[in-house]
Amino acid sequence: MTTVAGPMPVAPPPGPPRHPLDPDPVRATKARAVFALGLMGALTGLFIGGVVPATVALLLARQARREAYASGGFLTGAAWLRRGESLAWTGLVLAAVAVVVGMVVGVLRLAEAPYGQDFAPNVN
C-alpha cells in the first residue's frame, strides 16, 4: 500500500448542489404533535377516551404528509409520523377491544339475571 503526500481529497456532497436561497430542511411541527397525540391515544386506549387523541393524530398525520410532499423535501419528520400513526392505530384497536369486552361482559351479566319479576313461592 502506498500513500500519497498532500492534502486529502474532499468528496463532493451527494446529490445536486443546493441553491443558496433554498430553505434549510426542518422537522415538521405537526410530526411532533402526531407522535404526542398517538402516544396519548395508545396510553389511554383501554379507557375509551383514547379514541379522541388517536383520531386527531391520524387526521393531523394526513395533513402533515401533504405538507411534507408539497415542501419538496424541506419538511422532515417522516419517522415521527410513522411512529405516531402506529401508536394512534394501537390506541384505536385497544379502544375497540375495550368496547367488545364490555359488550360481552354486559351480555353475560344480562343472561345470568332472572327474566321478569321474581315473586315469592306463596304469591299467585
Automatic annotation (TrEMBL):
Membrane-spanning parts: 33-61, 87-111
Superkingdom as given in the UniProt entry: Bacteria
Region spans: Disordered: 1-25
Keywords linked to the UniProt accession: Membrane, Transmembrane, Transmembrane helix
Biased composition (Pro residues): 9-18
Name of the protein described by the UniProt record: DUF4190 domain-containing protein
Originating species: Micromonospora qiuiae
Species classification: Bacteria, Bacillati, Actinomycetota, Actinomycetes, Micromonosporales
